[in-house]
Amino acid sequence: MAWDFQIVQVTAAGTFGTVCVAFDWSTRRFYALKVLKDRFKHNRKVLTRTHDEATMLAKMQNANILRVHEMLEVGDRPVVVMEWVQGCSLQDLVDCNPQGLTGPHALELVRQTAWALHAAYNTPAGATGAAMKVIHRDIKPSNILFSLQGIVKVVDFGIARGDFEEKRSETVSMVLGARAYMSPERLDGAPDSPKLDVYALGLVLYELLRGERIKLSMRPNVHTRQMADALDALPIHGMSAEGARTLRYLIAELTHYEPEDRPDAIDVAKRALYILDLEGGVPDMVAFANSHARPIFEANSLIDPRSIQDYDELAFIDQIGPTRPGGDPAIDRKLRAFLAEPGWADHVEELWTLLLLNPRWTSRPFVDWLDKRKASWWQFWQQSNATVPQKIALLRILSCRFDAEAKRRVLRFKSDANPRVRKLANALLTAEEATHF
Known about the structure:
The chain has 437 residues and is an alpha+beta fold. It is built from 16 helices and 8 strands.
């Protein structure tokens, strides 16, 4: 496949790689790209671990694990092409809700994450069908995404360990990851087990409910006492007294000092569902996403990605030319080519999202597209080949850059024959600042 990427956001930069959101003009889809930093491109250990992460994720076709589409070699740099999750991280939810989430919502987020951990460890791979035995080793709120569709996605398996045929790197039990979420045995250098991810998940659940991280001693007796005191004082909203008591007991088990006393990930998921059933069932996570995740997602800055320092690590895959004042000619060319296709309206959602995320375009390509018609503007919209989806698409697009020219165009839609078109046009013209419909 020939990729044609345009970077629209730089989302994260770690020790080894930089993550961005890119629009591919060839497939008309958004992807998340994880790009290895230039200084590690000849580091064999880092290269093999990058390969292993991509291979693991490609095999784990689970709804709660971020999907990998392909691993590219662009020049001499590996680029992992992944699905893009429209939403936010659990860390974002914690930061924006210092009072904590309700018990049912926090529990459902953790339930989905537990299913992901179970799937990662038990996914079969290779001719024998043996389990891959993937242990994440870096479970924390920032590595768990929550989509606008109400779905949890576990990400960043960069330091995970597992067993599968295509594995290249040597598994070592190094103390890598966020120390605040490490289990006692991991800090002591004990062999890795799935129970270390369960421990971290217990801390995540506590943090979601409390709105802040808990700090625990690594001395057994002190650890147990601190956890018990913290759970006694933990406020749990939106649950009955019995449900809250059961939830506190579950957290205590997940964070038990001894790994053999913790439940397996599958048991965590089942017990979470049991508690939710007692409380009236799984909450509406789509509604929760719209009320809590969507504002965070939409508040993301629309800063030109090339103004961010980490962009230098990504410039070699960006197919759009230098930014210029008053719009970007390279983007204009892409948009004109897009509009030249007969089925462009079928991809209007992807185009709409691209334009919302990208400040480097103007309404000029769309205005010019209309002007090139042999008929006048008014006559054009009376022709049978001008479909309602095309009209709605143009109205939505012009609303993103509602300048004087766009306003003049939209005025003509106030009396359109189609009620949906009339409604959009009037809403756009009467809104003080129209951004989306």
